[in-house]
Amino acid sequence: MQDQLEFGYWTIRGIGQPLRYLLEYVEIPYTQKNFNIIESEWFDSVAKPPLNQEVLANLPYIKDGDKWIFESQALYIYIAYRANRADLLGSTNEEQVVVEQVKGVLLDLYRAFRSLIALPEVDYLAKKDEYFNTEVLWIIEKLNKFIQGKTWATGNNLTYVDFFQFELEQTLEAYKPGILDQFQNLRKHHDAFAEIPQIKRFISSERFIAQPFYPIKRWRWW
């Protein structure tokens, strides 16, 4: 039996959630080490051995035996290789380029939405709709148009960006219930991904973190 990986992240969904989906999908044995974001556990851990010897120490991380891997984008690659599923990075050179393009759009969407949620408290209620319509909506529209006619985010093959895209679709639907019904290509992608057996089991399990999505007190915090 393979040694279990340890996946470490905050007790939120955030950028860690798509990685949890990916670990579940490839069925590598792993345990979760969830750090309470309002306590000092992570900062205490990183201040002492062995993490204080790791220059890049950060959340999320994967611990594989004596090996530590940090940074979310690197973790996607590590999980795919560890599971002997390099196809999840793109099966051809051309597909790998498309994966990177879609990842760039998804990162733009993630950052725009995170900035919306992090608007100063004094401005949030007054500005949130305008910000969504000017800074977030156009990225959703572009993504919806791009995936038209595709089975998955980049074409006919499932790749790691589908896991990231699904989490963003979940986030948008939680923020504006029913919004995916306005973007049928995203709705189709979301619903198909949710039916993947490993994902379906995970979402219905006790290990699944339903909320918070972000470490922002005003929305889906605790």
Automatic annotation (TrEMBL):
Catalytic activity, reaction form: RX + glutathione = an S-substituted glutathione + a halide anion + H(+)
Signal peptide: none
GO biological-process terms attached to the record: glutathione metabolic process
Alphabetized Pfam families for the sequence: GST_C_3
Sample GO molecular function, one term: glutathione transferase activity
Residue stretches making up the GST N-terminal domain: 3-87
Keyword Acetylation attached: no
E.C. designation(s): 2.5.1.18
Keyword set, alphabetical order: Transferase
Domain GST C-terminal: 92-213
UniProt xrefs under PANTHER family: GLUTATHIONE S-TRANSFERASE, GLUTATHIONE TRANSFERASE
Assigned protein family: Belongs to the GST superfamily. Pi family.
Subunit organization: Homodimer.
Function: Conjugation of reduced glutathione to a wide number of exogenous and endogenous hydrophobic electrophiles.
Protein name, as recorded: glutathione transferase
Species annotation: Paramecium pentaurelia
